[in-house]
Amino acid sequence: MFSLAKQFAFTSMRQTPAVRAATIVGSRPVLSAKRFYHERVIDHYENPRNMGSLDKSDPTVGTGLVGAPACGDVMRLQIKVDDGGKIVDVKFKTFGCGSAIASSSYITERVRGMSLDDALKIRNTDIAKELCLPPVKLHCSMLAEDAIRSAIKDFRTKRGGDVIHGAKASAASQSMAA
Amino acid sequence: MSLLSDSIYYEKSSETLERLTESLEDIGDQMEIDDYDIEYSSGVLTLRLGIKGTYVINKQPPNKQIWLSSPVSGPERYDFDSEHGAWFCRQKDESLGTLLNREISDALGVEITLPVK
């Protein structure tokens, strides 16, 4: 499913050139921007960071799944968290437009190495700014923010509460394994 | 996800976007603002306010929602509340009309009231 989406999205991106057409209106030249993908979005699309999956049943892994096929975007974001509450691994898979793919790819880059609390501070506006998303694509950045929150919520639910450093966390994982 | 029927969703969302388009066109005509542009097609309303940014308000039929992209507050999704006859967003519990009145009045520097709750 994901590779098919990538093929389709790839074709449509190649047919949309990065063009600014200059036309003359009255005596002034007027620049009208045709729709285009920012080079940062294209970079994430062609070189996605952290694409893949983690073991959903692993107690140290939180899985976030957001969006809906009917809307055109689905994101799955997984985080692996150590006993210190730090995100030590992160993977994503996204079905959707170039901006959705780039938003989720970028957020995985950002959260790697972060504490869960710091990861929760990432706002969709940060993502949109970094990728220079146009107004109609701001929703993709919101979805990526939803995805990391969903993954963290899943992880915390699995652990039966907040991850705390050291002993308490290991006790929790031991009782889950039992 | 809304429990609205497809036909009511279609009726309410069309009504809202058409009213917004009409009143925003009138405002544009009355005020003669630079770089002001409004376009409504295929269920997507685009309001350009020059350096103040661009608003995109569109129907999202699969969710029976209206989606907003604001240059001030970012993206938001609205569900129809039949009881109040208005579109409300999930987090801030504020209606679409309230937000647009506030932000567009701010952007234009003059108090406007749109015919949308």
From TrEMBL, chain A:
Residues 37-159 form the NIF system FeS cluster assembly NifU N-terminal domain. One of its GO terms (molecular function) is iron ion binding. InterPro entries: ISCU, NIF_FeS_clus_asmbl_NifU_N. It is found in: Mitochondrion matrix. Its cofactor is [2Fe-2S] cluster. The keyword Membrane does not apply. Its main location: mitochondrion. Pathway: Cofactor biosynthesis; iron-sulfur cluster biosynthesis. GO terms for biological process: iron-sulfur cluster assembly. Keywords: 2Fe-2S, Iron, Iron-sulfur, Metal-binding, Mitochondrion, Transit peptide. GO terms for cellular component: mitochondrial matrix. SUPFAM superfamilies: SufE/NifU. Belongs to the NifU family. Scaffold protein for the de novo synthesis of iron-sulfur (Fe-S) clusters within mitochondria, which is required for maturation of both mitochondrial and cytoplasmic [2Fe-2S] and [4Fe-4S] proteins. This is Iron-sulfur cluster assembly protein. It comes from Coemansia pectinata.
UniProtKB/TrEMBL annotation, chain B:
It catalyses: 4 Fe(2+) + O2 + 4 H(+) = 4 Fe(3+) + 2 H2O. GO terms for molecular function: 2 iron, 2 sulfur cluster binding; ferric iron binding; ferrous iron binding; ferroxidase activity; iron chaperone activity. This is ferroxidase. PANTHER family: FRATAXIN (PTHR16821), FRATAXIN, MITOCHONDRIAL (PTHR16821:SF2). One of its GO terms (biological process) is intracellular iron ion homeostasis. The keyword Hydrolase does not apply. Keywords: Ion transport, Iron, Iron storage, Iron transport, Mitochondrion, Oxidoreductase, Transit peptide, Transport. The keyword Iron applies. Its main location: mitochondrion. Its EC number is 1.16.3.1. It is found in: Mitochondrion. It comes from Coemansia pectinata. It comes from the Eukaryota. One of its GO terms (cellular component) is mitochondrion. Belongs to the frataxin family.
